[in-house]
From TrEMBL:
Similarity comment: Belongs to the RRP15 family.
BP term (GO), one: maturation of 5.8S rRNA
Biased composition (Basic and acidic residues): 33-42
InterPro entries: Rrp15
Compositional bias annotation for Basic residues: 43-54
Cellular component terms per the entry's GO annotation: preribosome, large subunit precursor
Name of this chain's protein: Rrp15p-domain-containing protein
Region (Disordered): 1-54
Amino acid sequence: MSPPPPLKRQRLSEDESDDSDGSGNFSDDSEGSSDHIGDMKPQKSRQTKKRKIRATRATAFGETLQSLLGTDAPSALPLSLKPSVGRKRNDEKLELKAKRVLQVERKEKEDKGRIKDVIGGWGGESERALRKVAQRGVVKLFNVIQQSQASAAAVVEENKASRGTGKATLAAPVEKPVNKSDFLDFIRAGAVVSKR
C-alpha cells in the first residue's frame, strides 16, 4: 500500500520535480515523454506567485512598514462605508425615539385625571405599614376559608361513611326511659320489663 497523501502541498524544486515525473509506473516505450509530462503540468498563475513571495531581507520589510505608516488610514469604521448599515442604524434609532415618545404620551394620558397624593401626610413608611396590616388580614381570611372548607369536606365524608352501602336500613327504635319507681313496680309484679 502506498502512504497516504500529505495534508499540505509540498513545493519541490524543479530538479526534483523533473526526476519524480520521469519515474513511476509508466511504460518503458515512452522514455522521452518525461519532458512532455512536465509541460502538461498546470502552470501557477501570477497572482499565486505574488502571494507566495515573502520578504527575505529586513530592509525590505522595514521599507514596507515605513510606507504603510506614512499613509493616512480612514478614521471611520469599515462598516460605516456601507450605506445600508448606516440606514439600518438610523432607522433603529428613529424607531426607539418614536417608541419612547409614544410611551410618554400614553403615560400622560393615563395620569391626566389621576390624583396622586390624596392624603398629604402619607409617606412610604406609613403606606408600608398599612400594606403589612392588609396582608396579615388577607392571610387570616384565607386561613379561615381553608379551615371551613376542610371541616365541610370532613362532614360530607362522615355522612357518606355512616350511610353505608347497599339497601337503606330503617332507623333504630327510640327507647323510652323507664323511671325507677316503674322499674321496681314491674319487678314486684313479676312482669317482664318492656323495652319501650
